[in-house]
């Protein structure tokens, strides 16, 4: 049922792509949909009032925010909008979650983090050590650079309360088996908290099917505004301590976890992301699905084919160059990796490689990308980290060829 990605339509929805620059730093932040920007403008100019009043404009504003939250819930496969917590960033949402979960933890209880996550899903949990929580680290295998369940098994005990890990590494591009890990952790009586920031721009989400407890991603890396989304099972959210005013009841989710409320115009603008993905799914399938979640999944499936071709072109070039080390899977298998490709070049500072590419009006990046513990484990902490090229479905093979031509000058 899968057709070809409607690439011309996709690119037409991102005005920045018509400019002079090629954007291959998408893991740092994707380009923004015109439908998102239009909704921000529309909200601010026609319904910029406080929610909850009886007059018509306030009612309109409230329904716009609610509609967007319902659409996000449908997009990710949540049961309803009460399982969707919106905040300013994934880092902030993770910090809020850890703070709200803290009263349930006792000295000696254990939390497991990885050494390959973005710091957002590490630091928030590590800070619980100040309250007597024991923090353990699940390390990637030094040879495969993958997380192994046997290593996690050695860490977990009857006191383990939560395992925090990433769905896809923002350095390695490796996709971790969320369903298998979640089942493994649940069988041992603990919860999971998954960072999906590097995964959500590339694949459809289905939080209920995966049975994850908490799951977070950044909207501005999924073609939207500078917001982030945290999913939590409703019964778990209701059991968390309130971060809002003391009189907000425990079952008032997600509001009790959104002190000060959400950003109205940015939340409303998320409708532009959902609408785009749904339309792209229709245009990229010979038999569009019957529901929104299915059509979004079809959009991502078509996009994954495009991304595999893009990553394949770049990885083939890098494999053939002397002195280049690719971190993560060296082939563009969409089942194993997303198109975030990190590498180093022997004898070349990653910063110098990236700056050379700048000269061709192509944006890539170098550094540790807040996965500092992984960069240290790779022995790159004192070397400006890695060069990272991060593609998404709207990029083209011609853009990758232009990048390759520029890289060839310094390899």
Description:
Helix content is 39%, strand content 14%. It has 411 residues and is of the alpha/beta class. The protein folds into two domains: 7-33 and 285-408, Aspartate Aminotransferase, domain 1, CATH 3.90.1150.10; 37-273, 3-Layer(aba) Sandwich (Aspartate Aminotransferase, domain 2), CATH 3.40.640. The mean pLDDT is 97.
Question: Which structural traits does this protein have?
Answer:
seven-stranded mixed sheet; 13 strands; alpha/beta; Aspartate Aminotransferase, domain 2; four-stranded antiparallel sheet; 411 residues
Structural class per helix/strand content? alpha/beta
**What CATH architecture of the largest domain do you see?**
3-Layer(aba) Sandwich
Largest sheet: 7 strands, mixed
For the termini, the CA-CA separation is 42 Å
Number of helices: 14
The outline comes out as globular
CATH level-four homologous superfamily name of the largest domain: Type I PLP-dependent aspartate aminotransferase-like (Major domain)
Helix content: 25-40%
Which parts are unreliable, with pLDDT below 50 for 5 consecutive residues or more? none
Question: What is the element string, with H for helices and E for strands?
Answer: HEHHEHEHEHEHEHEEHHHEEHEEHEH
Radius of gyration: 21 Å
Content of β-strand: 5-15%
CATH class of the largest domain: Alpha Beta
- What name is given to the CATH topology of the largest domain? Aspartate Aminotransferase, domain 2
Mean pLDDT score, rounded? 97
Total separate domains: 2
Number of strands: 13
- How is the largest sheet built, in terms of strand order? 2-8-7-6-5-3-4
């Amino acid at each position: 049922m899968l057709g070809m990605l409607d690439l011309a339509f996709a690119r037409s929805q991102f005005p920045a792509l018509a400019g002079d620059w090629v954007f291959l730093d998408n893991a740092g932040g994707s380009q923004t949909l015109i439908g998102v920007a239009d909704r921000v403008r529309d909200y601010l100019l026609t319904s910029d009032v406080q929610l909850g009043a009886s007059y018509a404009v306030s009612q309109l504003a409230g329904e716009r925010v609610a509609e967007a939250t319902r659409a996000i819930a449908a997009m990710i496969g949540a049961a309803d909008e009460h399982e969707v917590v919106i905040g300013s960033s994934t880092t902030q949402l993770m910090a809020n979650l850890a703070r709200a979960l803290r009263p349930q933890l006792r000295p000696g209880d254990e939390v497991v983090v990885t050494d390959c996550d973005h710091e957002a899903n590490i630091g928030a949990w590590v800070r619980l050590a100040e309250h007597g929580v024991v923090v353990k680290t699940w390390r990637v295998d030094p040879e495969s650079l993958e997380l192994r369940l046997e290593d996690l098994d050695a860490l977990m005990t009857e006191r383990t309360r939560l395992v925090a890990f990433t769905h896809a590494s923002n350095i390695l591009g490796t996709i971790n088996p969320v369903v298998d890990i979640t089942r493994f952790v649940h069988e041992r009586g603990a919860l999971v908290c998954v960072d999906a920031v590097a995964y959500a721009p590339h694949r459809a989400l289905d939080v209920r099917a995966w049975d994850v407890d908490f799951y977070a991603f950044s909207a501005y890396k999924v073609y939207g505004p500078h917001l982030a989304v945290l999913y939590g099972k409703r019964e778990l959210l209701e059991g968390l301590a309130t971060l809002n005013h003391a009189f907000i009841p425990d079952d008032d989710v997600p509001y009790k976890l959104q002190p000060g409320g959400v950003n109205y115009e940015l939340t409303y603008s998320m409708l532009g992301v959902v609408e785009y993905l749904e339309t792209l799914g229709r245009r990229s399938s010979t038999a569009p699905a019957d529901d929104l979640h299915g059509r979004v999944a079809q959009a991502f499936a078509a996009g994954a084919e495009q991304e595999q071709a893009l990553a394949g072109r770049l990885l083939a070039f890098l494999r053939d160059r002397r002195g280049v080390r690719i971190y993560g899977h060296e082939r563009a298998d969409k089942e194993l990796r997303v198109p975030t490709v990190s590498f180093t070049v022997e004898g070349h500072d990653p910063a110098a490689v990236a700056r050379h590419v700048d000269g061709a009006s192509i944006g890539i990046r170098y550094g540790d990308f807040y996965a500092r513990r992984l960069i240290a484990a790779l022995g790159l902490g004192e070397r400006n980290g890695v060069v990272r090229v991060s593609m998404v479905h709207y990029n083209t093979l011609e853009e990758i060829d232009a990048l390759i031509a520029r890289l060839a000058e310094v390899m």
